[in-house]
Specification:
The chain is an all-alpha fold and 73 residues long. The protein has one domain. It is 66% helix and 0% strand. It is built from four helices and no strands. Helix 2 packs across helix 4 (55-64). The two termini are 14 Å apart.
Length: 73
């Protein structure tokens, strides 16, 4: 896979997990704050749609939304 394909895959996986749980960016920001991570709606929108976030950020999001398992395909 090329670099851009990995970014798209990361973005799509995160967006799919948010959608499965009915979590929008405003809700995600609130849930992240509960686990000690400060992110605004705008920063989430930019970061997620860009697809070039860190794995640490991905783990923070998964923890915040209560995702214990994810689908990679």
């Amino acid at each position: 896979m090329q670099a851009q394909d990995w970014k798209s895959t990361a973005k799509n996986i995160l967006k799919a997990e948010l959608a499965r749980r009915g979590v929008d960016y405003e809700t995600l920001a609130a849930k992240l704050k509960e686990v000690g991570v400060e992110e605004s709606y705008n920063s989430l929108n930019t970061k997620i749609n860009r697809g070039s976030f860190t794995f640490q950020f991905f783990l923070q999001c998964m923890t915040a939304i209560g995702a214990n398992e994810i689908r990679l395909n």
